């Protein structure tokens, strides 16, 4: 399966974020999306997840038979956002139960809701607390958990690990590695070492385009310097004329 961006353009007011971007993401790879603050990474995720529309161009899921679908359901996309939107009035356990029940036909997890929460380091007493009383990191864990178990073919992870403690971050990295065999995984991060460790391909959002970082640069000792050099270069004006 592929996720195909074809000639996409997107601007907000006078700021152009994507200029005729064409790019194919494939199943079986973890893509690290890097770019400077405000480059448009979250906006790109929102366009793929159909929360925002592109100004022109198309975004399609292409199945293994080559069938292209631009009218895919947003339930095909597992989107972990930086800011969580969880129901305040439910406990962690109630919410995970609820999501698992709603998605029971596509669940991949062999675990119960309680076991899944435990797996993410949320202990018995916290499982019965209201989500509004969870810490930021705990809310992020719940969001990652409910996204992971629903078995979508595309996962968009917007800075997924920044609020996790080291144990949870380790576990979630393992989960992300497991996901890639049957899904396209794209995650944005500003942590270069994490991108290098986890990703099969680094994609830079820079100068309103997506550009793959060559494998030689990915393996290079000067990886960090290379990225900083590229992202520091200004090739053009980022505003519309
Ligand atoms: N709904 C919106 N209306 C107007 N401008 C927006 C909207 N959403 C995003 N922007 C602008 O688009 C630009 C890109 O924002 P976006 O959040 O996609 O960047 P980002 O690459 O994810 O940044 P960061 O690394 O800081 O999280 C910013 O200048 C932002 O202010």
TrEMBL record:
Residues 3-232 form the ABC transporter domain. InterPro entries: AAA+_ATPase, ABC_transporter-like_ATP-bd, ABC_Transporter_VariousFunc, P-loop_NTPase. Keywords: ATP-binding, Nucleotide-binding, Transport. The keyword ATP-binding applies. It comes from the Bacteria. GO terms for molecular function: ATP binding; ATP hydrolysis activity. This is ATP-binding cassette domain-containing protein. It comes from Pseudolactococcus raffinolactis.
């Amino acid at each position: 399966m592929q996720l195909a961006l074809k000639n996409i353009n997107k601007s907000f007011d006078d700021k152009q974020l994507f200029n005729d971007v064409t790019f194919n993401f494939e199943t079986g790879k973890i893509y690290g999306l890097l770019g400077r603050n405000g480059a448009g990474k979250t906006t790109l995720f929102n366009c793929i997840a159909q929360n925002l529309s592109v100004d022109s161009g198309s975004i399609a899921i292409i199945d293994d038979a080559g069938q292209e679908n631009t009218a895919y359901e947003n339930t095909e996309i597992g989107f972990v956002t930086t800011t969580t939107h969880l129901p305040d009035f439910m406990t962690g356990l109630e919410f995970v139960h609820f999501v698992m029940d709603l998605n029971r036909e596509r669940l991949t997890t062999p675990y119960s809701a309680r076991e899944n929460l435990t797996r993410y380091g949320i202990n018995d007493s916290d499982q019965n607390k209201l989500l509004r009383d969870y810490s930021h990191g705990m809310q992020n864990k719940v969001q990652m958990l409910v996204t992971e178990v629903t078995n979508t073919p595309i996962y968009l992870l917007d800075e997924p690990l920044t609020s996790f403690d080291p144990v949870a971050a380790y576990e979630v990295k393992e989960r992300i590695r497991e996901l890639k065999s049957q899904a396209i995984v794209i995650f944005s991060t500003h942590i270069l070492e994490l991108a290098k460790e986890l990703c099969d391909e680094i994609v830079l959002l820079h100068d309103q385009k997506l550009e793959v970082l060559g494998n030689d640069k990915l393996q290079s000792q000067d990886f960090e310097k290379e990225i900083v050099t590229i992202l520091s270069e200004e090739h053009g004006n980022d505003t519309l004329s």
